[in-house]
Each structure stands twice: as C-alpha cells, then as structure tokens.
## 1
Amino acid sequence: MADDILSYSSEKKGIVTPNLTSEEQSSDIVSLRPSSFSEYIGQTSTVETLKIAIQAAKMRNESLEHILFHGPPGLGKTTVSHIIANEMGKDLTVTSGPTLEKGGDLIGILTNLGQGDILFIDEIHRIPKIVEEFLYPAMEDFAVDFVFDKGIHARSHRYQLKQFVLIGATTRVGLLSSPLRDRFGIFRTLDFYSLDQLIIIIKRSAAILHTIVSNDGAIELAKRSRGTPRIANRLLKRVRDYSQVRSDGKVTKENVNAALELEGIDNLGLTSLDKNYLKTIINFYGGGPVGIEAISATLQEENDTLVDVVEPFLLKIGLVLRTSSGRKASSKAYQHLNIKP
Ligand code: ADE
C-alpha cells in the first residue's frame, strides 16, 4: 500500500500544473515576467526581505524558510516565487489548493521534490483539511506519516522527505488556520503598485513587445491598471492591438482612451463588474451598509470573486467602505458614478 501511495504520479493527474491563467499561458506574458530581482519593480521591502533571506540561506548552505504571500490577484505572488527559485538555483513545482483533493495528491508531489526545491501552492487557503494535516509534519519535520489499516491493525510509517521550501499564496490570509499560518517563517503582504511603478512596468513590457509607447500613453494606461501589473500588461496588449489596426501602431494617450472605451474600462480602470457592484449597493441597498452575501445574491456573482477581485481595489481607492455592519458606498462612489446621494 505504501508503494501505491509513493508511486502516485501527481503529474499524470494534472495536479502539478503551471497554474497560470490562460492569459499567462501565452508565451508573451511568461516572457514579460521578470526572472530576477534586478528586473523586478516595486514591492521594495518584500524584495529586500527576500534578498536577505536568500543570501543568508546561501551563506549558511541551508534551505530557505517557508514563505507565505498574501495579497490580491495579479500583484506578483507567482512571479516572485519563480524569481526565488531562479535565485536559489532550485526547481519550482507549482500547484494550487483546490486541486489537492486527497492526502495522496500532496504526497505524490512532496516525494518528488529534491533538496531545497520549492513547492508553490496558490490559493493555499482552499486546501482541504485532510490535505492540510499532511502539510504540518511535511513543513516542520520534512516527513509524511502514512497510516496502514484501521482499528487495532493500524500501523504508522514515517517517510522522510528532502528539505523543501513551501511558498504559499493566498488572497485571504484570515481563512488560513493558525497552525498552518504559524509554520511559515516569512510572511509578506504584497501591496498595490504606485502609478510611477506601473509606468516603468508598462514601458518595460512595451519594450519587450517591441511596441512604442508615448509617455502620456504609459501614464494613461497606468492610471487604469488598478494598481496591478497583470492588468497593466493585459491592457497594454489590448491597446497595442487597437493601435496597430486602427492607428499608427503607437500606444498614445488617444489610442489608450479609444481602446479602453471599447473594453468598457473607465478612467479609474473600473470594469462593468466593479460599477455594477457599486450600483447594487447604491440602488438596491440605499448605499449600504449591506452584507457581502446580499450583494453577491443580487449581482448573481460568486462571493469569492467580489471579495478577492472586486473589493480590494475599490477599498484601496475609497469608493467602498467596510464597516462592522457591512459594505457602504462612499460619497466618492456617488460622484464617480454621477449619482446624487
Ligand atoms: N511584470 C509584471 N510584474 C512586474 C514587476 N513587478 N516588475 C517588472 N515587470 C513586471
């Protein structure tokens, strides 16, 4: 039975996936990703922490401690993990919480890791409890415990793993159990990027894509990227297409405005989902406070999408407020949507 478990091939089941969105799977996005800290823009204190930890680990000839990244999607949790693996000169295996359904799924992956290799688990808050139980000894003692048979015949066998590094990523650190959270030695929250940082990222990406971007074009794109490099790169590609087909191929402010109007993205970078979210609070619930379940029921949108994708930026720019009794639209939200309070 042990052999059955140990020979479990996670690759066959597609559990170890590059875990990229379809957008990221295109070779363009992969190549837009910085591969070293020297190319990486923003998240300065996180990068500093990581560089120090990497250098110290190398000096002591040790592995890194386990790392937990928290923050909204698109801010670079996966990118930074790739960079860490590159800088440590180790292999990176990427998987995600919801794909690990059984203990065996995780064991298959863990037993294939080499000394110092890195396991990246995205959406780690979504791993089932049963799989989480296997993670504790794996993280702490680099071992997995098998139990054979049941009742009075039950026997336990401990299998020693190589010393690996777990990098967990989550949009909801509050949903992690404290035993799991406590087993990470490094915990960093990634923040939204500033306008200046996004402008540099857009210019860097445009250069990689052999696209000319004017200064005001880059500024306009950055303003509409919701503080998020993944969105900046996606919008850059839409404007590049538009400029090529309808204009002179240059990413200018005029082309950004015209292309993003077609995409339904407004001057703050809000999509129709963002605006419908705000309008639901204002028009259906008198501006709030209202609970997230009521908003998601009215919008017929997943609760998780609203909490993970929509709300963080609206909270950041102060269009929505979170109070103990629920979400409220701010006066800035009324102004932005041109609705009289
Ligand atoms: N592309 C996406 N994120 C980036 C970052 N932080 N720095 C440089 N290029 C990026």
## 2
Amino acid sequence: MIQRPRGTRDFLPDEMERRRHYESLLRETAQLYGFREVATPMFENTELFTTKSGPNIVDEIYSFQDKGGREISLRPELTAPVMRMFVNELSNAPRPLKLFYFGQCFRYERPQSGRYREFFQFGAEIIGAPTAETDAEAIALAEAMIKRLGLKNYVLRVGHIGILREKLSGLGVPQEGMAELLQKLDKKLYDEARSLMEAYDVSSEGINAVFEFTALSGGKDLLSRIEGEAGAYLRELFSILELYGVEAVQLDLGTVRGLDYYTGVVFEVEAPSLGAEKQVCGGGSYTLSELLGGESVFSTGFAIGFDRILLALEKEGANFSPQGLDAYVLATANETRPDSFRIVTMLRKAGLRADVDLMRRKLSKAMKQAAASRARYAVIVGARDLAENAGTVREMSSGEQRRVSLDELVSYLSA
Ligand code: ATP
Ligand code: MG
C-alpha cells in the first residue's frame, strides 16, 4: 500500500461535508463585510517568499527547481501571493481593496496535532489607508468569523509592534538584527532573546525593560499608559472596535508577530482548549507591496488557521451532522428497476437529493443501504404501486409507510 506523505491528510465524505459547511460560514461572513474572494497559484517563484521572509525561509517550505531550472516554492501562506497579485494586477483599482481567500498552504514543519505540512488558511486583506478604522475593520471581520463558526472560548489580543521596534532600535538593536529578535520574542524564547540583545550591547536594565514591556497586557485601562503616536492610534482603534461591537478584546503589547513585515497593529486569536498549538488566527498591518516592486501602500489583514479552528470547535463539542439524502429509490424486483431510474431522475430534476440502487440488491439489503445513506425517505418501486402510478414511501425514522401517487411524489417528499 502506498501511504500519503507525512503531515498530509485525506478528507473522507463526512469530514469534507463538515469542512465545506464551516468554510461557507466564513465565506458568507466575509461577504457580509464587503470583501471579495480572490485566488492565486498554489506555487510561486521562490523569490516571492525569500524577499518577504529572508533566505532561511527556504528551510521551512517546499522549494524545488522545476524542469526549466526555475526556483519554485509551494506557498506557505497567502499574504505575499495576494500582495504580488495586487502589485501585478490591481495597483490601479479603487481603494480600499477588500479581498479574501481560502486555500491550502504548505510548510515543511514537524507534524503534530494542529500542525500539518498541508493545511488551509482563510484570510482577508485590506489595502487602503493607514487609518485606525482600517485595522478595526480587519479585526472586526476576524472576530465575526470566529463567532459565526460558533467558537465560544477564545482570546483576542491586540498589540502594536511599532512601539517595540522603536524601543529596540532606541536600545541599539540594529535593523538587520530586528527580525531574528522579534521571532525569539514571538516564540517567548526569552533566554535566546537576552543573548541576542547582549550581543548588541543592550544594558541589563534595557533588556529587563523590553521583557516588562512585552509582559504588559490586560484590559482597556492599560491604554492610557502608552505614550506617543502609537498610544493615540491604539486608543482610537479600541474606541472604533467598541462601535463595531468587538468587546472581548485585550490589549497585549507582547503580541509579537515573528515575520519581518509587520509594522503597526498586530493581533492574534487563541483557542485555549488547543493546548500548545493554540493560535487560530494571526494578523496585523504590514508594508509588503514596495518590497514586491509596487508603491508603498498601507495594508492590514489576517489569516485564520482553518484546520486548527475546526479542532477547537470539536474540542468544544460542536456537533455537525451530515445532511444525508432526501430519498433513496429502490426497486422490489428486476422488472420495476427501469421505473426506479425514471423516478430518481424526476426527483433529482426537482432539486431533491436522491439516490438509486446501483448494485441490483434484494429489497432488504437495498433498504439497509438507504439507512446507511441517511436518507429521510425510501421510495419503494413495486409492480402493484406502479399499476396505480404510485410508489410506496417509507419514512426512515419512524418506519411508517404509505402509498403516494407519482404525480404528488415531489411535493410529498419536499414537505
Ligand atoms: P505558528 O506560530 O503556530 O507556527 P504562524 O505564526 O507561523 O503559526 P501564521 O503564518 O500567522 O502562523 O498563519 C496563520 C494561522 O495559520 C496560524 O495562526 C495557525 O492557526 C495556522 N497555521 C500555521 N501553520 C500551520 C500548520 N503547519 N498547520 C496548521 N495550521 C497552521
Ligand atoms: Mg506565530
């Protein structure tokens, strides 16, 4: 037997139906907020990702040379591809551009619960102006999506990475060392962050001040303690979020996103029920388009880890039952089989989910198949029924049977 590659999954019909259901809730919500869907290729020129995240990213993604000798990578995320698309195709479009996407991403990571080599992100980006309402709109959509899925237990934390960047550069951390240090702080690897700062001659008071700053988290009351432009921006953001009805939001200045291109507001959503891999959404504002050869433009966005948020819903006991068929049509004998095809076709044309026995089973076995397909009704096609232009309809849950005229069958089954 050939196994599927490590870190990948197969989705069987029940699971796929569940995934499509939740996906459609997300899509619906994004559309309610005025976002429009886009799609980009599953693979890109590797340069797109190294430009954004540095050459080391290649160790973490699926990169290869194609037969023409081009350096190609499977996309590890969709923000860079969407911004590339913006620069290539949409740079003259009216703003703000409000885009969303759903698709698979690939990362060469150690697989574990909630961490796969192929996984799905549902994300959104706004390309517009650096106003607090733009960031608020992105955060409000992220929260609305999470609520729409029905997740109850989650924590939404908002911070501002600009303040930390400024603090670090004021302490003497050079621009080229910033990304690595922020990555350590993001992963809460404080010992490693300390040695990096020591190497840049940051004093121990300075280092402690950085750690204290990243530990600053709590309710809105903390807002008044943040100085400067960033403080004013955050205060404005939080007051707009309130108008948007986003209430359960925490201010957390330790919200550090590892990636280099985040510049201002950053936010994360965690589902505590997930344990170690609990981050279900990450986002913030960034400057990426000029790196990709476009003009400098303010953008903000987020990505929901679709697989992880489904795991969190499962942990909370959210149950989803597959829809099943409206009707399963079965013939009592070979002579009535042709009529079963005629009848199932009539039901399908009327928009009912209907199936028919393809295995030439005996009635009792075919009835078992009808139950396994979770059909609401079985339509039994027998010679005596047909003589009266009728079929026998069995309600599967109660076992009740009655003869229904074929002319009334559709309306009877639709009721
Ligand atoms: P982490 O810190 O957990 O590695 P990240 O910060 O790299 O995640 P992002 O690039 O912001 O994650 O991706 C957005 C979301 O995608 C994450 O919050 C997470 O829910 C999900 N995600 C990231 N990597 C994986 C993966 N390998 N498998 C499943 N989901 C993932
Ligand atoms: Mg992270």
